[in-house]
Amino acid sequence: MAKQRAKLVVGNWKMHGRLAENRVLLQAISRGAEDLPDDVRVGVCVPCPYLAQAQTLLEGGRVAWGVQDISAHEQGAYTGEVAAGMAVEFGASYAIVGHSERRAYHCEGADTVGVKAQRALAAGLTPIVCVGETLEQRDAGNTEQIVGEQLDAVLAKLSVEEVARIVVAYEPVWAIGTGRSATAQQAQDVHAFLRSRLAAKGGDAADVPLLYGGSVKPDNAEDLFSQPDIDGGLIGGASLKGKDFLAICTAAVAATAAR
Ligand code: 13P
Fold this sequence. Notes:
The chain is α/β, with parallel strands linked by helices. The protein has one domain: TIM Barrel. Helices cover 42% and strands 15% of the residues. The chain has an eight-stranded parallel β-barrel with strand order 1-2-3-4-5-6-7-8, surrounded by six helices. The chain starts with 6 loop residues before the first strand and ends with a helix. The model has no long low-confidence stretch (mean pLDDT 96). The structure holds 1,3-dihydroxyacetonephosphate. Homodimer. InterPro entries: Aldolase_TIM, TIM_sf, TrioseP_Isoase_bac/euk, Triosephosphate_isomerase, Triosephosphate_isomerase_AS. Substrate binds at residues 12-14, 177, 215, 236-237. Its main location: cytoplasm.
């Protein structure tokens, strides 16, 4: 019997949103999340300029908020960067680090991702560490090698106690924004591999929440979230629609009940 871990569903808005539409979306999510059981946690990672708005509209409710990246530096002459400590001042709980879009478009290497995870933890944020392979890497049979190396680069920088405080998201690059999700079995296989890698670190590392991301929609979420090693999702496009995002949260509830 698989171990029951709380589910976690986090929206990644990417570079979307404007004040007026955010208000409608955040209020809808906040209201809808009130009906969810305690063992389903919900978060949204918004663009930094909207952190204050998220704080105002979500404070005291069931939905946590966070950022999509943080600087590898604590503070200093790093034009355009946002420090983890700044996000914390706006009540943020989460920081996504190592998203494939940052790795691909901002030359973010495995070492930098590890440093960002350290920075997030030091500031009191939960890093959501993203790993994932490209289609080419999958077709070459290198998925485990790639995600294993990406994860190890982060684990190498953290103590056992720190590892227990992270979240890991498996996001196959070929499934992001393509409408082509990994099958539940494909995702489960990689999650089981990641969990074994975490378990090798010892302590509570094996119980780190493992999220799946990549074209999660209301109609495939329950199937994915019912897998023994999938503890929830990191949701892109569907997190911009209140109804869809809440339906995905509800699928997490159904998946928990079905296990
Ligand atoms: P989509 O859900 O739009 O495929 O994006 C996934 C993602 O990148 C979340 O971080």
